Amino acid sequence: EVFxxxxxxxxxxxxNIMNPAKTLMKDSLDKNGVATVDAVKAIVTNGKAPMPAxxxxxxxxxxxxxxxxxIEQAEKGWK
Length: 79
Prior knowledge:
- By secondary structure, this protein is mostly helical.
- It has 5 helices and no strands.
- It has helices spanning 2-6, 8-11, 26-31, 37-46, 60-76.
């Protein structure tokens, strides 16, 4: 639910409409050094241009949840 509401507009199906070279697919996460829940949490929390920070709009539990979801879906190939 958190992903659908806050992330899917740019990252639907693990893609990235702003930078197709940096998707949420496992190989891309690995290549870009963000293949762990903690690495994804840091980006969700603080942002990384052009992605905005979500620390003001999501609580810690939501950030943890959506970060774990991203890694879980990447492992499954976003099916």
